[in-house]
Amino acid sequence: MAERARARQAVLTKPPGSLGRLERLAITLSAQQQREQPDVDAVRIVIFAGDHGVCAENISAFPQAVTAQMVANFAAGGAAISVLARHLGADLEVINTGTVTAQPLLPGVLDERIGAGTANIAQAPAMTRTQCEAALEIGVRAAARAAQAGIGLFVGGEMGIGNTTSATAVASALLDSDPAALTGPGTGLSPTGVMHKTEVIRRALQRHGQDKDPLHVLASLGGFEINALAGALLGCAQHRIPVLVDGFIVSVAALAACRLQPALRDWLHFAHRSGEPGHSAVLGALDADPLLELDMRLGEGSGAAIAVPLLQAACRLHNQMASFDSAGVSHDS
Ligand SMILES: O=C(O)c1ccc[n+]([C@@H]2O[C@H](COP(=O)([O-])O)[C@@H](O)[C@H]2O)c1
Ligand SMILES: Cc1cc2nc[nH]c2cc1C
């Protein structure tokens, strides 16, 4: 299918290669979807929310209660990703994988709480192996629902105060990096705050970071929402649904998932380079060159949502442009 898409690009009314990366995007999407006419109009954005016990170590600029409060804001339509989903005409699904505060039933929020947040990774494994598998399964089910709904492009997002600490610990373990090279301000820590956060991550790594098995790393250092994202990405690949990867946290989930199954890499598009400094190392390890660099560091799938129209334009051009022959435009000199 990639060969056919490449052949089509060669006869469209433009100098060969002049649409640059948009041409390669259309070719890749055609191969991923196994469609002559790739179509990413049906977009589903799934936000996985979860809390982190490591917040007890004072590693975020915001209080833990914000996670559940933002879940309510997603449902009410007031969050950045709510606005972007409406703007794109995309489905928005919100899944509570385990906030500290339980919530009343909110319309548009799936309650799949595994627990009241993870344990503090500086002191204990984030979760049991059973909880880790349950988290992966939450994502696998989200991917299956997307497949059932005929979704053409999956955007995974996350919300979890403290999750840059968890994600940085996972990335440090998987990349065998010093946490000082990957730790950043997250929601907005001061430089002293970042130094303290680095030490907390170092403690977590000393405790659980020796075993590099990806499932062990996800269970001991990950989060319910991070692990659910890893499961969702793997599920999307199984259903042949291309995925547009958001920022730092989703990329770390993608890295862990690729360690579990390297073939996943072929299904991933990378939307943007987040302002979180560790993102570049994670992107590098995935051999990913993101489409955009807008200094965004919000999460919620917002960076991916911003890049959706690029993929849609690439498909439209591929599917609708005239060929030299059909338009009567001369091409050999
Ligand atoms: O996506 C990113 O690159 C990104 C970078 C920094 C922060 N975030 C968001 O901020 C929250 C985590 O930040 P923190 O400081 O509480 O660890 C979480 O809800 C993420 O969605 C997201
Ligand atoms: C308000 C707020 C919104 C967020 N969205 C994702 N992470 C977030 C963190 C905060 C603090």
TrEMBL record:
EC main group: transferase
Organism classification: Bacteria, Pseudomonadati, Pseudomonadota, Gammaproteobacteria, Oceanospirillales
UniProt keyword Glycosyltransferase present: yes
Single annotated GO MF: nicotinate-nucleotide-dimethylbenzimidazole phosphoribosyltransferase activity
Superkingdom of this protein's organism: Bacteria
Role played: Catalyzes the synthesis of alpha-ribazole-5'-phosphate from nicotinate mononucleotide (NAMN) and 5,6-dimethylbenzimidazole (DMB).
Catalytic activity reported: 5,6-dimethylbenzimidazole + nicotinate beta-D-ribonucleotide = alpha-ribazole 5'-phosphate + nicotinate + H(+)
Species the sequence originates in: Isoalcanivorax pacificus W11-5
Pathway per the UniProt entry: Nucleoside biosynthesis; alpha-ribazole biosynthesis; alpha-ribazole from 5,6-dimethylbenzimidazole: step 1/2
Protein name as annotated: Nicotinate-nucleotide--dimethylbenzimidazole phosphoribosyltransferase
One Pfam family hit: DBI_PRT
Coiled-coil features, chain-numbered ranges: none
GO biological process terms, semicolon-separated: cobalamin biosynthetic process
Signal peptide bounds: none
Active site: E300
Keywords: Cobalamin biosynthesis, Glycosyltransferase, Transferase
Family matches, as SUPFAM superfamilies: Nicotinate mononucleotide:5,6-dimethylbenzimidazole phosphoribosyltransferase (CobT) (SSF52733)
Annotated EC: 2.4.2.21
Family of the protein in this entry: Belongs to the CobT family.
